[in-house]
Amino acid sequence: MMAGAGEDLRALFGAGVRAALEAWPALQIAVENGFGGVHSQEKAEWLGGAVEEYFFRNADLELDEVEDFLGELMTNEFDTVVEDGSLPQVSQQLNTMFHHFQRGDGTALKEMASSITQRKCRVRATTLTTARETDEDDADSVEDMEVKGLPLGWGDVTATNDGAAADGVCPQPESSGPDSQTIKEEDIVEDGWTIVRRKK
Q: Which residues are listed as membrane-spanning (predicted)?
């Protein structure tokens, strides 16, 4: 391989790496929301060079090694654990591009980078809606379910009698006679806890 052709291939591989990383939703979300701090965009740009260099220094990488490397970078640089299943996909893309580079197949590198760029989609992180925003009709019960000023939907999952989780709603126990547990207003203490007492 000639020096000029090798430099061109290296540039094509670098462009492919950047295209794959720019199309990666987990990285987009981390950058757009500043998970890497005030320099998130610069870190994302650096990440492309770091990944490219990683491949050049380690010629025979296995897919799981690439996944581990990308996962570590996301954790260390963006304080993000990628659990959406995209890590193996991005790692496979990068590995395939590097194999094209090693074989000197510039055409395949161009096509792959172009394909990734064309199907790139913009992804935005959205905040969870609270019951107050989604359940306007039931405003009174939403106000009753607020815990220490936090609206329903912010860490207020409670357990029902059978142990299953319900979104902020814990049904009252049904009366089964004179031995049933009753909750009196004076048994509810200030911080929202309820004292449960047995009848004697």
A: none
Residue 12: CATH number of its domain: 1.10.340
User: What residue has token string 């570590």?
Assistant: 72
Q: What tokens does 198 get?
A: 């047995």
pLDDT digits (tens, 9 = 90+) for 40-96: 999 999 999 999 999 999 978 999 999 999 999 999 999 999 999 999 999 999 999
List of residues 6+ apart from 150 with CB closer than 8 A? 156
Pull the structure tokens for residue 18: 């950047």
Range of 113's domain?
A: 7-123
Nearest-angstrom CA–CA distance, 142 and 151: 8
The whole-model pTM stands at 0.58
97, 100, 101, 102: CA torsion to nearest 10 = 120
Instruction: Give how far Cα 93 sits from Cα of 9, 54, 80, Å.
Output: 16, 15, 21
Q: What pLDDT digit, counting tens, does each position of 112-123 carry?
A: 988 888 876 544
